[in-house]
Amino acid sequence: MPTLLDEAMTALAAAGGTAVVQAAGTDAWAGLRQAMARLFGRGDDQRASTALERLDGTAAAVGAGDEDDPGQERVRQEALWQGRFEVLLESVDAAERDSVVAALRAVVAPYAPREHDGRGEVSGNTFNGPAIMQVGNGNRQDNHFGNGA
Description:
Blueprint: H1 7-23, H2 29-41, H3 45-64, H4 70-91, H5 94-108, E1 132-136, E2 141-145
Antiparallel strand pairs: 1-2
Helix pairs in contact: 1-4, 1-5, 2-3, 2-5
């Protein structure tokens, strides 16, 4: 009888799906692809080969995307991979599960949301022309308007 996954393993499976989709088409793809093949293969070349084929299919699908809704294919692929990770985690016996969980955590760690240390962060923003920027920490607030005023 398959083992039902607890909340932490379900979240780990979801993180795995996100990691696969985020890495697709990036410089990190080759390393993640090989790590996932090893994880799914667990010493079996046929299972590893199947995983590689699925990973390549995902990379192609994410790269092609949907012109009307480019995020739709990414969401679909994340869900597919979450399901695959859930099946993997359910299929291994208790003795092997700890090593599979540890390996999956290690592979997805670079793609997990970072813990915030209380400092603010700006990423990927471009301001063209006049802009208003507001920064505050709850007690103090600095407002800057226009071009240095």
